[in-house]
Specification:
The complex is a heterodimer of chains A (about 200) and B (about 190).
Chain A lengths: L1 E7 L4 E7 L4 E6 L6 H9 L2 E7 L11 H7 L3 E4 L10 E2 L5 E4 L2 E7 L8 E5 L2 E5 L2 E2 L2 E2 L5 H15 L7 E4 L5 E2 H7 L1 H8 L14
Chain B lengths: L29 H13 L3 E3 L7 E6 L4 E3 L7 E6 L4 E3 L7 E3 L17 E3 L17 E6 L14 E6 L9 E2 L3 E6 L9 E2 L1
Parallel strand pairs in B: 1-3, 2-4, 3-5, 4-6, 6-7, 7-8, 8-9, 9-11, 10-12
The chains are: A alpha/beta (about 200), B mainly beta (about 190).
Chain lengths: ~200, ~190
């Protein structure tokens, strides 16, 4: 499996290209912007974009979808199909999808947005805006932050420490690195932010 | 992308080397295996998806090597010349680099987090989106390098020079700094805690 990193100047977001060694149907994750450099990389590797995974609905991660649909007409997978202008396949938590021979596991971690998903392919986690190198996703309130932290704690930090993190923004990382050096995460975990979820007004 | 396959020896927590069932420590004739690995890397061809963790390398010329999506975690690099190397999306986390030269290298999207860097030079390098989180760097020089969106958070920097660097969106939060200079760099565009 080949994984390529593409940095989009559109809101400084990352797009990832995952495809088989010998070319063929490939997956694009978070098409923030489709530019000639990305198209060139797709074509040079003899890929055809058959699937697009959206980590969450924000425009910086989806803006290139229109262009992509015109060129490759891929199947699009997202947690909130209703927000797009074309057919999108609903992704559910803990679903395991076989996308042209590449196994993708979806992990729903709400908080940054309600429809935030992490996609696990091999030993790589495409975390979108859930978890970055040195940061956690931005949230709009304490409950959203608690939801996000609970998801990170229970669904990501429990994975093998060598799982690689390919986030929606910033540098790539690994679970072990974030456990040791993500001070924002360490501080949040040790504070009472997580305790907000035990409040009786919160339906979980 | 490289695969983290555990060493086949029961109880060993290291990962197997590329195209092998064991780590270097448990390989039969590990010296010969290491020589082969070095010879393979040292040729002028591009390399991808190499797994070569927990290895000690000393006094080698890796200038102009081309590596991508490879894993060199927990290695010791002593006096290695990476001048003009092209190292994309490679993992060098929790390594020791001593007296290494990366001048003119392109190490974009790579991960050096948790490593100790002693007397190393990263001058004139392209280090965009490079992860230096939690490093312990002493007597190192990053001058004239592009560190756009690089991450030095939670690191310990002593006598480190960032002279005339691009630091746009670089992350220096939670760092301990002693004798660190950012002269002529756009440090106001970086994040500091």
């Amino acid at each position: 499996m080949k994984v390529f990193f593409h940095f989009s100047l559109n809101e400084f977001s990352n797009t990832f290209l995952v495809g088989p060694e010998d070319g063929g149907d490939a997956i694009l994750i978070d098409p923030g912007k489709i530019d000639l450099e990305l198209i060139d990389r797709i074509e040079k590797n003899r890929f055809s974009i058959a699937h697009v995974l959206i980590t969450h609905r924000h425009e910086t991660h989806t803006k290139g979808l229109g262009t992509l649909m015109k060129i490759y007409n891929p199947k699009v997978y997202a947690g909130s199909p209703g927000v797009f202008d074309f057919p999108v396949i609903q992704v559910n938590d803990r679903s395991i999808m076989d996308l042209s021979g590449i196994t993708v596991e979806s992990i729903q971690i709400p908080g940054h947005t309600l429809d935030s998903f992490v996609y696990k392919i091999g030993n790589v986690l495409f975390t979108g805006d859930v978890l970055f190198a040195g940061r956690i996703g931005k949230t709009s309130g304490v409950l959203e932050k608690a939801l996000l932290l609970r998801g990170i704690k229970n669904r990501l930090l429990t994975l093998d420490e060598r799982f690689l993190i390919f986030p929606g923004h910033g540098t790539i990382s690994a679970i072990k690195i974030e456990k040791l050096f993500n001070q924002e995460l360490i501080d949040a975990m040790s504070s009472d932010d997580l305790a907000q979820l035990s409040h009786p007004s919160v339906i979980t | 992308m490289f695969k983290c396959v555990p060493c086949a020896v029961e109880g060993c927590r290291r990962y197997a080397l590329e195209d092998m069932y064991t780590c270097l420590h448990h390989a039969e004739n590990s010296n010969a295996v290491l020589k082969t690995l070095i010879a393979n890397i040292n040729d002028t061809h591009k390399h991808r998806d190499i797994v070569m963790t927990d290895v000690r390398l000393k006094d080698l010329d890796f200038s102009r090597i081309q590596l991508s999506t490879s894993d060199f975690a927990r290695c010791v690099f002593e006096n290695i010349d990476f001048t003009d190397a092209r190292i994309h999306a490679c993992f060098f986390d929790f390594c020791l680099f001593e007296g290494c030269t990366f001048t003119g290298s392109d190490a974009r999207h790579s991960v050096v987090a948790g490593s100790k860097l002693l007397n190393c030079s990263f001058t004139d390098s392209l280090l965009i989106h490079t992860n230096f989180m939690g490093i312990d760097a002493q007597n190192c020089d990053f001058s004239s390098s592009d560190l756009y969106y690089s991450n030095f958070s939670s690191s310990h920097l002593v006598n480190v020079r960032f002279k005339d660097c691009n630091l746009k969106n670089a992350d220096f939060r939670f760092t301990e700094r002693d004798q660190v200079t950012f002269k002529y760099s756009n440090y106001e565009e970086a994040s500091f805690s």
